[in-house]
Every structure is written in C-alpha cells, then in structure tokens.
Amino acid sequence: MGFFRTNFVKNHTYKVYDHPAYTNPQLIGNVTRSMLSKVDPSIIKGDPDKLAKRLYELANIADPPMRVMLGLEGPAMFGPKLEKDAAEREKFASWAGGLNFDE
Most CB atoms closer than 10 Å: which of 4, 33, 47, 95? Predict the structure, then answer.
C-alpha cells in the first residue's frame, strides 16, 4: 500500500508505551515511529478519502482480488521484492514434487 496523508502521520497521534519491552530503539515499531516523525506530511500525496472509496469499490465487485496495491508507492516499493520472490519460486518449483508416499 502506498502512503496516504492521515492524521496518524500529520499529528503523530500514536501512543508509545514506556514499558522496557517496547523502548528498544531497534524494534521495528520504534524505527517506524522515528521515520514517521521526520516525514513532512505535505509530501504525501495519497488522499485517504479516495482510498476509502476505492476500498469500498473493491469490496463490491463480484470477484475481488486477494491482494491489490493501492497508491503509487505500492508497486515501486513491492515490485522488486515480488519479482525476486517469483524468480525464487520458479528456481525451486521442481522441489514441490516427489514428496508423496511410495505406494
């Protein structure tokens, strides 16, 4: 999913817990919050109202996709990973066979 300009990013309105299990700066949640605190919301072009409408449209089509990338950043962020995953699946596709009982 791409980025959408919401109050979550704009106001940094998320709660951060003080418990030691959550304060390690290397935890993914803390890394994410640190990155978000440095984002200028005006550079985020995704309109959350348009996203909500698109999700509603997807929910109302006869055969909705299992996964769909929304927002222009989605394909740019995940495209290379998906290509790598597809190449790896193809490389090891033959490993799927030969695992049934010998009867």
Answer: 4
